[in-house]
Amino acid sequence: MSAPTARPGRVTRETVASPHGEGSRSGAARASLQHPFALGFFGAAGALLAWWLGVQILSVRSLIMLVVVAAFLAAGLNPAVEWLTRKGLSRAWSVVMVISVVIVALGLFIVALAPVLVDQVTAMVDNAPGWVQALRRNSLFQRVDQEYDVLQKAQDYFTSGGFTQRLFGGVVGVGVAVLSALANAFIIIVLTLYFLASLPKVKSAAYRLAPASKRPKVRELGDRIVSNIGSYVSGAFIVAFCAGLSSLIFLFAVGLGEYAVALAAVVALLDVIPMIGATLGAVVVSVIGLATDPKIGLFCIIFYIVYQQVENYLIYPRVMARSVDIPGSVIVIAALIGAGLLGVVGALLAIPTAAAILLIIREVVVPRLDAR
């Protein structure tokens, strides 16, 4: 007589429990994890771990910002490095040449700006007594001073010991800020140098993290994102050149030709910062114009109010739309959101980030939705 066989699909006791009892143990583990106390414990442990990781990330957020800025600058300078490599130079020498040109340009800018600052601060100090006398002769200010005693309060404030302490503390604070800025600039230059030299290897290593079947598409999207960052940097320089050139012409026309080149360089450098850079440059030029002549300062304020509107809503969106291929409205919104979240760094990174997100949506998300 043959041994009885199990019917197809019939569950026997041997199929449920293994000889070593592994099925029963896994079932007990699942049952224990379903206990409210266990769920609460593991949930609380996960929340504490997430909170601890968040605190650690926030503690090094300044360093993370430096790394992000250096990576952004490396991607922006990479087209120049690749252009030199196509001309026959090795990548190492191309990186050295590009970084050297950037450092020399910044040094020349500082050398050109320092005499202007010294001269204009001296002019402001020398002109301050005349401005006070002009205020005393002004009928409107006389009524305000009689009612609120503005000049006497200002004199008491400046001659008090508290002002001296605040001034000393402010000078120390400014000195510490300057040293910190120089240290951060050195770190960014070194990191940018390393990122530029090893950018192809870094990209290859990052692409290998993707599955083999998806790797060609990931490589294509990654190369396009890096190319978009380089195009964005080129577009930002075009916008800054327009701001510097228009400022140069205006300053010669308004009577500040002695300092026109240096001030135009200041405006061009600050204009690289989206949305708020033009305002910072306008403040610098307007203050120096007021120190030279109040009428010139008024003309500067009017000119930069008009120019900033033209740049923000006409020049900048058009140039960036051609450079990174995103709508002008998205450019303005992204720059405002980035500036609100991370300040100057956020404003710099917002537009290439928005371009990368739109590229992923167009190339990955939309085709998947169309295929459903």
Strand content: under 5%
Approximate shape:
globular
**Count of DSSP H/I helices:** 14
The oligomeric status of these chains comes to single chain
Mean pLDDT: 77
Largest sheet: none
SSE topology string:
HHHHHHHHHHHHHH
Q: Radius of gyration, rounded?
A: 31 Å
The helix content is over 70%
- Indicate the structural class: mainly alpha
N/C terminus separation: 58 Å
Question: What is the number of beta strands?
Answer: 0
> Which regions have little confidence, pLDDT < 50, spanning 5+ residues?
6-20
Layout of strands and helices, then pairs:
Layout: H1 13-16, H2 22-33, H3 36-59, H4 61-86, H5 91-137, H6 139-148, H7 150-159, H8 161-197, H9 199-207, H10 215-254, H11 260-270, H12 277-292, H13 294-324, H14 328-371
Structural write-up:
- The chain has a domain at 60-196.
- It has 14 helices and no strands.
- The chain has helices at 13-16, 22-33, 36-59, 61-86, 91-137, 139-148, 150-159, 161-197, 199-207, 215-254, 260-270, 277-292, 294-324, 328-371.
- It is 86% helix and 0% strand.
- It is globular.
- 20% of the residues are buried.
- Helix 4 crosses helix 8 (161-197).
- It has 372 residues and is mostly helical.
- Mean pLDDT is 77; it is low at 6-20.
- It starts with 12 loop residues before the first helix and ends with a helix.
Descriptive key words:
372 residues; 14 helices; globular
